[in-house]
Structure formats: structure tokens, C-alpha cells
Design goal:
Helix 2 runs parallel beside helix 3. The chain is an alpha/beta fold. The chain has a 5-stranded mixed sheet, covered by helices on one side. The longest helix is centred in the N-terminal third of the chain and has 24 residues.
Length: 150
Amino acid sequence: MGKKKVIKQTEAEVLKEKDVVDAASVAKKSTKAGKKIETCRVYVNASYNNTLMTMVDKNGGVLGWASAGSMGFSGPKKSTPFAASKVAEVINEKMRQLEPQTVEIIVKGIGSGRDSAVRSIAGGGFNIVSIKDVTPIPHNGPRPRKVRRV
């Protein structure tokens, strides 16, 4: 393969490169913190197995999400009201950074964590405009099976 040549930078070049990297990180942080939104929607999906929460802007772009599984809960503990309230606290922290004026909550599913998730979001001190339940309800269901003849 041959020998590789190691290029050593002078102290001035190292300092200049460090200043460029620091300026880029400061610019990145300031744009993230400076982003403010007027309204946001929080989708709560409470199933028997997990509780998922997604925060979106008015166009539907995802601003943040959290789930009981990502919080470290496993097995049957993921669908508990305690896990749902912890997920809601994470979403509240993400909403505090964006400072929305109004919040709409859309709840889907019949899990045990749906009520505690809504209460935890309401306890965050945000102006909640509406709470909507969009749980799918079957109207008549599929056609029943034939009667078994023996």
C-alpha cells in the first residue's frame, strides 16, 4: 500500500477551523430555538399495547413525537395511564420550546392511557382549543359466517 503522509496543521489553522465549527453550531441552535408556531395539533394514539403522541404544525409537518416504548417502558407497562402521562410530559417540553398560541388535541384508540394523556397536556398550561375523538367505530361489521351444519 505504501506509506501514508500525515499532514499537520498549524495552530492558526486549527483555531480558524474551531471558530467555523463553533459559529455553525451557534447558528444551528439559534434557528431551532427561534422557530415559533401559532397553532399545533397533538395526536394521541392510545392502543391496548402502547401510547403514541405526535405533535404537528398546521400543515401536518411533524414537530416532535414520543411513545411509551421510546420512554423505556416495556411489555404491559406501555399501555398504562402512568406511561401515557410521562409521554405527555415529553411532548409538553417540546411544545414549550416552540411556544404555540393554541393547541388542538386529537385522540384515537381505546387504550387506558388516553384520559391521562389529555389531562397531562391540559396541565401543561397551553391554550387548548379543541379535543376531538376520531376513534374508528364499525357500523355493522363484516358478514357473519355460515351456520355450521353437523
